[in-house]
Amino acid sequence: MQDYEYMQLAVDAAQQAQWRPWKNPRVGAVIVKDDHILAVGYHHQYGDVHAEIDAYQQVADKQQLVGATIYVTLEPCAHTGKQPSCATQMLAWGLQRVVVGQIDPNPLVTKHGVERLRAAGVQVDIWPIPVSEAINPAFHYFFTHQLPYVTLKVAQSLNGKITAASNEATKITSAVVDEDSHTLRAYQQAIIIGSTTALVDQPSLAVRHVHTQHQPLRVIIDRRGRLVNSAAVTQDNTLIITENADFATQAEQVSYLKVVTPQTILHLLGQRGIQAVLVEGGSELHAAFVQAHAYQEIIVYQTTGLLPNTGVSSFGTADSMTDLGKIKNVKVIDNTLKVTIKREEA
Ligand SMILES: NC(=O)c1ccc[n+]([C@@H]2O[C@H](COP(=O)([O-])OP(=O)(O)OC[C@H]3O[C@@H](n4cnc5c(N)ncnc54)[C@H](OP(=O)(O)O)[C@@H]3O)[C@@H](O)[C@H]2O)c1
User: Which protein family is it in (predicted)?
Assistant: First the structure.
């Protein structure tokens, strides 16, 4: 097998973890000696051992590691976090070569892992095309821009309506589609909704149907303070962002910003280390994010039902889905099209 085939195996292994690494990147590793695969490993879950160590633990005879090559999708870490530094541990294995899929954008790691290995005489090759970013868009975006990666999510009828009327909650998707959107939630550290959606739907915003150890932070945008005295104010794991200074003094969960815009919201969440954010609407809030170009991805669950033409339209201003970006993926789930759109960054 060739280098690229081993690296592809490492990428496939990384993806097996799905949402479970949470804020950590999905990483895969393959250890090879004399064209023979000794082990395939990945980072299974937030807080667990890293991919390199997962692969290492599967090699029964550690002598086989002497002179071996490891393919790893992201630079081995050089700092002690929840786990000891991988680069330091790897030095004891007697590896001949380390092939790194991409340099880690986290400043605690960037190039330090590679430098530590090279300084000890290990050959380190950096993959010519970065492989980790495609597996971990939010992780790379966050460490490159110090802002969360934003996905707008909407479920709409065939005629592009998200609800029959603004003051009314309309069920649009089936239970099977709901399960898919809960998986989408499990990848996020925060979910944002507008004040009307909070008042009308009162959604729990929790991840259900999918096993996760982390619930995303509920973020409600309430510039005017319409949620004063509502149950949301005392809910745990909740952040209400407001321009109403009096409201902000009433509870710890309420944060004051002089001007609330998509940019100031994302700046605040970025400061809190939130890498991935899902904006679940409604229409006005989505329109504000679209107008500000404050999103990287949109997921539309396009159902086949119709709602009254007087209902609330998705995204307010955009004429069609193609105005929002490039359609990257279309999948059918239970009679519903799941359309993934990526915005072309300027
Ligand atoms: N089918 C779906 O996927 C779906 C999803 C969610 C909601 N819905 C439905 O949508 C309806 C509510 O939608 P809606 O459009 O009426 O209201 P909404 O988006 O829930 O609420 C409007 C929000 O946008 C904020 N906002 C407006 N312009 C802004 C700007 N330039 N910068 C920052 N924030 C801005 C408002 O802040 P202030 O309130 O502080 O002014 C408010 O929080 C409900 O009926 C709900 O059931 C459907």
Answer: In the N-terminal section; belongs to the cytidine and deoxycytidylate deaminase family. In the C-terminal section; belongs to the HTP reductase family.
Cβ count near 1 (within 10 Å): 12
Q: What is the DSSP string of 62-114?
A: GGGGTT-EEEESSPPP-S-SSS--HHHHHHTTT-SEEEESS---STTTTTHHH
Rounded mean pLDDT of the chain? 94
User: What spacing in Å lies between the alpha carbon of 222 and ligand 1's midpoint?
Assistant: 10
297 given a catalytic annotation: no
Pocket test for ligand 1, best of 158, 163, 261 (most atoms within 8 A of CB): 163
Residue 57's identity, in one-letter code, is Q
* Sequence letter at residue 170: T
Q: With a 6 A CB cut-off, is 192 part of the ligand 1 pocket? A: no
* Cα–Cα distance for residue pair 76/233, rounded to 1 Å: 42
Rounded distance between C-alpha atoms, residue 48 and residue 54, angstroms: 9
Q: Which residues pair with residue 39 across a beta bridge?
A: 31
**Which among 243, 173, 232, 229 has a CA at the least distance from the CA of 197?**
232
Prediction pTM value? 0.94
Give residue 323's pLDDT band: very low, low, confident or very high (50, 70, 90).
confident
* Contact criterion met (CB below 8 Å) for 132 and 105: no
Q: Cα separation of 95 and 131, whole Å?
A: 22
Instruction: Give yes or no for residue 236 having a pLDDT over 90.
Output: yes
**Among 205, 221, 226, 301, residue to substitute to test ligand 1 (most atoms within 8 Å of Cβ):** 221
**HEC letters along 218-236:** EEEECCCCCCCCCHHHHCC
